[in-house]
């Protein structure tokens, strides 16, 4: 299993480009590649919950993955917050379509995956408490699927929508928008901390990555102007590395980890200013990162049920390709559902007009 992180690092370095400053370091291609990298890390992490570690180097693999820990999901929240701010700044109709295109679409995609888990559980005779079958559809409960990440994301989107509403009716700017999101996320962190305490800190220890992404979107132009100057960039990088090192040493305390998480996001962002990931493999993985994340447990559960988890090599050879194949198929299903349920206004009209023009020609 130790070969997996080694292969991932090698693949990541293929096509990597170094320069003084990559203007598109927060562009779609770059963030997609980064998400592709961490999507694989998440798969490698979850594999540990299903497979027996049968070889000496498997313990090294577990140590490597455990040292990454919850940091593997931080960039997804950070980029999401940044993307919301960017769209809010540039698209006048963003508020009007936000609930449909962000909240409802995410919920639909998630529930389609939950439905697959439900079918699998029926065939494998796997059962859960009844309450789980009620709460699983919004990510509060689970029937074998990953859930907390989706629940948190849905809450983040609702918080962002609430902040947009405040700004819409008060005429406030981006500063108020980011401030409202930040305060609401602090309350959300506190509520989850009360509910889950020290036993399930993963529910809330990465919450602040989203508002930090929001703020990054607000000040990106100023940040870029600052970071383009070498005499500012390198001391800033050293400061971020120092903060990360200090906080990482206290990562087992949730209060410190909650700050460590967004600092890690800034560290990766600062590095990608200089290092561009230009890789078709990472691009594909990033494009399908949601499907990989939400579907990955299905092949793992089935393989374990069939007895394939007793040997780590056999499990890896079965789980990794089946996860990628199933994720690709699920992404196709999602695109089909989106075309049917989330057609853009005027899409039908445009298609008809094209046909008419074609017939005239």
Provide a brief overview of the structure.
This protein is mainly α and 361 residues long.
Question: Descriptors for this entry?
Answer:
single chain, 361 residues, mainly alpha, two-stranded antiparallel ribbon, disordered C terminus
Tell me the strand percentage band.
Answer: under 5%
- The helical percent reads over 70%
Largest sheet: 2 strands, antiparallel
Tell me the span between the first and last alpha carbons: 60 Å
What count of domains describes the coordinates?
1
Count of alpha/pi helices: 16
Mean pLDDT: 92
Task: Give an overview in words.
- By secondary structure, this protein is mainly alpha-helical.
- It contains 16 helices and 2 strands.
- The protein is globular, with a radius of gyration of 22 Å.
- The model is unreliable at 348-361 (pLDDT under 50).
Question: What is the topological layout?
Answer:
Blueprint (H helix, E strand, L loop, with lengths): L2 H11 L3 E2 L9 H20 L8 H13 L5 H17 L3 H31 L5 H6 L12 H23 L3 H23 L12 H19 L2 H19 L5 H19 L2 E2 L3 H8 L1 H7 L1 H9 L6 H30 L5 H14 L1
Antiparallel strand pairs: 1-2
Helix pairs in contact: 1-2, 2-12, 2-13, 4-7, 4-9, 5-7, 7-8, 8-9, 9-11, 10-11, 13-15, 14-15
């Amino acid at each position: 299993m130790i070969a997996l992180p080694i292969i991932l690092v090698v693949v990541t370095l293929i096509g990597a480009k170094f320069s003084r400053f990559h203007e598109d370091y927060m562009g779609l291609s770059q963030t997609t590649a980064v998400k592709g990298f961490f999507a694989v890390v998440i798969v490698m992490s979850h594999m540990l919950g299903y497979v027996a570690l049968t070889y000496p180097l498997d313990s090294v693999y577990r140590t490597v993955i455990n040292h990454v820990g919850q940091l593997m999901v931080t960039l997804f929240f950070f980029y999401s917050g940044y993307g919301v701010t960017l769209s809010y700044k540039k698209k006048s109709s963003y508020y009007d379509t936000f609930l449909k295109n962000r909240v409802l679409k995410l919920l639909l995609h998630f529930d389609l995956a939950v439905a697959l888990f439900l079918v699998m559980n029926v065939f494998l005779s796997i059962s859960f408490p009844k309450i789980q079958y009620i709460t699983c559809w919004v990510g509060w409960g689970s029937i074998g699927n990953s859930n907390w990440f989706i629940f948190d994301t849905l809450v983040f989107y609702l918080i962002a929508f609430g902040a947009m509403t405040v700004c819409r009716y008060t005429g406030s700017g981006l500063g108020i928008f980011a401030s409202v999101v930040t305060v609401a996320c602090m309350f959300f962190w506190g509520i989850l901390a009360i509910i889950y305490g020290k036993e399930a800190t993963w529910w809330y220890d990465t919450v602040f990555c989203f508002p930090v992404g929001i703020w990054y979107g607000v000040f990106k132009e100023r940040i870029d102007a600052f970071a383009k100057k070498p005499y500012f960039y390198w001391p800033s990088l050293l400061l971020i590395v120092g903060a990360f090192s200090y906080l990482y040493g206290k990562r087992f305390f949730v209060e410190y980890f909650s700050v460590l998480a967004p600092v890690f996001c800034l560290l990766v962002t600062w590095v990608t200013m200089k290092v561009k990931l230009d890789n078709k493999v990472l691009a594909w993985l990033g494009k399908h990162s949601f499907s990989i994340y939400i579907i990955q447990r299905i092949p793992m559960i089935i393989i374990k049920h069939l007895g394939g988890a007793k040997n780590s090599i056999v499990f890896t050879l079965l789980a990794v390709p089946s996860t990628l194949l199933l994720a690709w198929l699920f992404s196709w299903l999602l695109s089909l559902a989106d075309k049917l349920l989330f057609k853009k206004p005027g899409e039908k009209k445009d298609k008809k007009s094209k046909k008419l023009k074609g017939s005239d020609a």
